[in-house]
Amino acid sequence: MSSELEKLKRKCEEEVKNSPNAESFNGIRIKYLGRKGELTKILRSLKDLPFEERKKIGQQANILKKELEDLISGKEKELSTSNFQFPTSNFDITKPGKKISRGHFHPLTKIDEEVRQIFTSMNFSVVEGPEAETEFYNFDALNIPSNHPARDVWDTLWIKNPKSEILNPKQISKLKFQNSKLLLRAHTSPMQIRYMENHNPPFQIIVPGRVFRYEATDASHEINFYQVEGLMVGPAVTLANFKFVVEEFFQRFFGRQVEFRYKPSYFPFVEPGLEVEVKLGGKWLEVMGAGMVHRKVFDAVRYNPGQVQGFAFGMGLDRLAMLKYNVPDIRLFYSGDLRFIKQF
Ligand code: DAH
Question: Does the C-beta of 189 come closer than 6 Å to ligand 1?
Fold first, then answer.
């Protein structure tokens, strides 16, 4: 290459290299490649040269022109994308970023999901029942007739003037023979009856659901809360089966070995009835009511008590959540207080 072109090239390269920002390239481009630019000048002066030299330098100059063009626009592009500068005022890049809050499940939803998972893995089916129930399912069919003193255990929310439209004709005809007053179910046990009316043993189900009580609220009482009912019926289901199922459940629920204690208790729909206690943090805590299904309950659903037997249990989901998460007051679950909810 002629020394003149060589010099020009180095000069231009130097200038491009030292360019502080993308804007300065236009000036460089004009200076070298513009109509009156330095390279253009050389190209124009070629006409005065002898043919052979004109041809040689002409070629070189054209190649250089292309080279310089690429060099300038390449560097220009690079600078225009990478020269973003943080504003220097009022902007502290060392400050921790703001956390974007994510949605998540309510603690009771999490416990509900966990309970369902453990039982379904033991081959239990999950069924659900209506929250507005009839007196028949909530009480009578569970061996708690109108005059039974045990009715007082379930402080019931009765529904005034129930509208018959909410029941289908088949239900209405059946209710002529049943106590049809409506109430908000006080426990999930009525679903035992509904399920057995439509299914034959053997089966094993759980019934998670919301229940209602007409009660003064305090740290361990709410007017509505959640229960999980369990029912397993077959030709030879025994308390030994019950013991295995609940112990397996609680061990998996609490994630470790826990101690169990069984106490005799009374519920009209089981015989014998019992209470299950687990030892947590050195204390015995009641976690479940249970028992062998009472023959009068089988009578109500027209099962033959001589041919089937089974166990039933009921537990409070809120109580399980309180034990697992160390929540001191059941009302927190329903407070809608995000400071509480966000901890889970
Ligand atoms: N339904 C009872 C209650 O709400 C709990 C219960 C006790 C359910 C014993 C059962 C059972 O199935 O066998 O207090």
Answer: yes
Residue nearest to atom 2 of ligand 1 (CA): 314
Going by CA atoms, what residue is nearest to atom 13 of ligand 1? 290
pTM: 0.70
Beta bridge partners, 125, equal 205
Structure tokens at 33: 């490649």
- Residue 90: how many other CB atoms lie within 10 Å: 5
Closest of 253, 226, 254, 185 to residue 334, by C-alpha: 226
**Cα–Cα distance, 272 to 38 (Å, whole number):** 108
**Angle 286-228-259 from CA coordinates, rounded to 5°:** 35
Confirm or reject: Cβ of 207 under 6 Å from ligand 1.
no
Residues 249 and 258: beta-carbon distance below 8 Å: no
Q: How many residues make up the chain in this entry?
A: 344
Strands 125-126 and 182-184: unpaired
pLDDT, tens digit only, all 344 positions of the chain: 578 888 888 888 888 888 777 777 888 888 888 888 888 888 888 888 888 888 888 888 888 888 888 888 888 777 776 666 666 677 788 888 888 888 889 999 999 999 999 999 999 999 999 999 999 999 999 999 988 888 888 889 998 765 555 566 666 566 556 667 889 999 999 999 999 999 999 999 999 999 999 999 999 999 999 999 999 999 999 999 999 999 999 999 999 999 999 999 999 999 999 999 999 989 999 999 999 999 999 999 999 999 999 999 999 999 999 999 999 999 999 999 989 988 98
Q: Does residue 313's CB lie within 6 angstroms of at least one atom of ligand 1?
A: yes
Contact 168, 194 (CB under 8 A): no
CA atoms within 13 A on the CB side of 304: 3
Contacts of range 12-20, beta carbons closer than 8 Å, 24 or more positions apart: 12/68, 12/71, 12/72, 13/71, 16/71, 16/72, 16/75, 17/75, 19/75, 19/79
* Residues annotated as part of the active site: 154, 187, 213, 227, 270, 312
Nearest CA to ligand 1 atom 4: 187
